[in-house]
Sequence to fold (323 residues):
Amino acid sequence: MPGYYLGADLGGTNFRIGVRAAGSPDLLLDRESFVAAPDWDCTALGEALRTGWDRILARHPELGVGADGCLGLGFGLTGDIDPLNGWCRTMPRFAGLEDQPLGAHLQAQLGVPVRLLNDGLAATLAELRAGAGMGTRDWLLITLGTGIGCGVVLGGRLLVGEGGRIGRVGHQVIDLDGPLGCHCGFRGCWQTFAGKEGVTGRAHTVAATHPDSQLAHALAEHPDLKRITELADAGDAASREVLRQTGTYVGIGLANLVKAFGPQKILVGGGIAENCRWLLDAAQEAVHGWAVKPYQRVPVVPAGFGKDAGLIGAVLLAEAGVC
Ligand SMILES: [Zn+2]
Fold:
């Protein structure tokens, strides 16, 4: 039996678990997902992981029983994660996981080797080793979700930095007079404009000036980026405006990153953003308008793995580490 790798991905809202059979061309053999509970501590998180793992094993008896055959767990998490010692320094939305030796805890609880990484870096690892970043030397990935994840690849290597702290670009301030509301406590962070809550707030603002739009009628459903994209694709002008404005904010932040890193291309992912031409076109336009020569032509393109990127990065992390 060649064995298998276990991956896990904890974002702001969802918790996903997947398995990759060693040596298989399929990056993910199977997966499970849960709604994440904000009161999870290390033990509760390990129990949820065990539950998803057991469900996958029940469907794949060829993988073995319990931890037999598992070659390791890779785990991407939102927050400030030190990949060297598996320490979880900060975890927005999960107070019980803050400042905890999560890697050592899970290793003892589950009985397998554990590697941890910030989720934006894990998604970038997936695109670097098996996706849209293959063959490009210098590039960036951002993931749009509750916040904004990011990874930077220069010279074909993922930059991790001391304590795994490279990539917290969602907290770059793009408006000194912008809203409070980011969990970091500062005003005007990029992700308050281009993350989930920014999109929701913008939908209400635009709908107020377009009371007969499909967007206005959909507000009671609390439309997310996916729903607003569906409405835009169906012809709703107000929804397109929300996506264009969001894309402009995305692009302004990207233009700053272009000036810092000089990438050959930028990947945009997060599960829905990669299918949203209204948002991507506006982001590309903003990069053209706000970056400096010669980088204003850097292409803004969809990431390859959609919402699976973090989970694929996690199983690849289990397999080969971060470097
Ligand atoms: Zn912030």
Notes: Residues 4-125+308-320 form a domain with the Nucleotidyltransferase; domain 5 fold (CATH 3.30.420.40). The longest strand covers residues 14-21.
